[in-house]
Amino acid sequence: xxxLLVLLVVAVASALGVVYTKYRSxxxxxxxxxxxxxxxxxxxxxxxxxxxxxxxxxxxxxERMAHGRLGMLLPPRESIIYIKP
Length: 85
Fold this sequence. Notes:
This protein is mostly helical.
């Protein structure tokens, strides 16, 4: 009789362990899905920031800003000195 009771307790404990493990697995899966969506959003934002950085760093824009704000002009071609590395 005692052996049967012990086996019953072990079986119930095992069943509860399976249920808890399955529940925990679903929670972790949901968390992984949420984090993957967050990562996708960050990747998209990173791409937009890189595009914006490239736009701000365009040579023509920098030249316009140097001319407009600072009054800088390109030097005449004959006054440019090229140095070979």
